[in-house]
Amino acid sequence: MLDHEQVVIRTGRRSRLPVIVAVHSTVLGPAAGGLRLWHYPDWRDGLDDALRLSAAMTSKFAVAGLPSGGGKAVVALPEGMVLDADRRREVLHDVADVIVALGGTYATGPDVGTGPDDMASIGDITPHVFCRPAHLGGSGDSSPHTAQGTLAALRAVSRRLYGTSSLAGRTLSVVGLGRVGAALARLLAAEGAALTVTDVDPGKRKVCDEVGAVWLSPDKILAAEVDIVVPAALGSVLDEPTVRGLRCRAVAGPANNQLATPDVADLLHQRGVIWVPDYVASAGGVIHAISAELHRLPAAEARARVDAIEDTVTDLLRTAESRGQTPAQAADELARRRLRAAPGPTGP
Ligand code: PHE
Fold first, then answer.
1. Distance of alpha carbon 102 from alpha carbon 93, whole angstroms
2. Whose CA is nearest to atom 5 of ligand 1?
3. 8 Å CB contact between 114 and 88
4. What is the pLDDT of residues 234-292, one digit of tens each?
5. Contact 142, 110 (CB under 8 A)
6. Which of the listed CATH numbers 3.40.50.10860, 3.30.450.20, 3.30.1360.70, 3.40.50.720 matches domain 6-57+68-135?
7. From the CB of 109, is ligand 1 less than 6 Å away?
8. pLDDT tens digit string along 198-241?
9. Which fold has domain 143-282+313-333?
10. Which residue among 286, 305, 309 has the greatest number of ligand 1 atoms within 8 angstroms of its CB, and so is best to mutate?
11. Which atom of ligand 1 is nearest to the CA of 53?
């Protein structure tokens, strides 16, 4: 059964590339979610990604307590395709056409492979776009806020494990040093945490040196003996073999779709590893963008909403423990309850 309200798949008029927009739910409000501009072996893999990521956005907003629905856009680039500036603008304008056709049901934002300048290009055609650069009236890059929100989630984990929200002296592995991972590594280093890091791009060793971290290869880092593993790259890193190899006490990070399959959450629980659902730990970016741009909150308040992820995670871990559930079950239940309490889909 299709779980989504609407999925648009269109060959871009200008780029001839497959543009996919999945609107999972507008029950809580108009849908929002980033645009992923990424390489896939087949465009259908991009469709799978859009379906899963948009559903996660619905849960992300529900647990964050925001009146928005879940959506996601994917442009599936063939492997090896490099876009020059003109071609890139064409792709972004093709995405914008689909957003226009959705009539306000979906607004986009940055995600893997896109940033504020791309949002500016989309803004040439439609106002339904978050995170344009500040000089164009947007709230700018969301990644520092996603990193800040993940830090808040990590504080809650630390409080649960060690009775203090301070991360000073804790050991953490940051898996992926993209815009969010690098920002988070810097925040953690500033807190006095001892870091192990990796990235598929060896060029990221610069960030490693800058934060005084130890570099481990991507295939070794999940099994490193640390307090907390922080997935900060592409999804599906947690599957049966990697979870069996974990030597940490918790996993919490900003990557979307960390579990290869939902039952991996149970395996983590059985192994005594606390897993904070990705859609809870990664919500800082959207919380900030939507608070600032849609709800027009002053900067300090938007920031406080991001920091409130600490309380959300603290409550979730407490609820899960008292009910004998996994944090994933507790978060899913909370999301479902909030969706059930809402009146119904938002019209265009
Ligand atoms: N990439 C963000 C996420 O997955 C999406 C986003 C950020 C959407 C900011 C809107 C504004 O949560």
1. 14
2. 34
3. no
4. 777 999 999 999 999 999 999 988 999 999 999 999 999 999 999 999 999 999 999 99
5. yes
6. 3.40.50.10860
7. yes
8. 999 999 999 999 999 999 999 999 999 999 999 999 777 999 99
9. Rossmann fold (3.40.50)
10. 286
11. 4
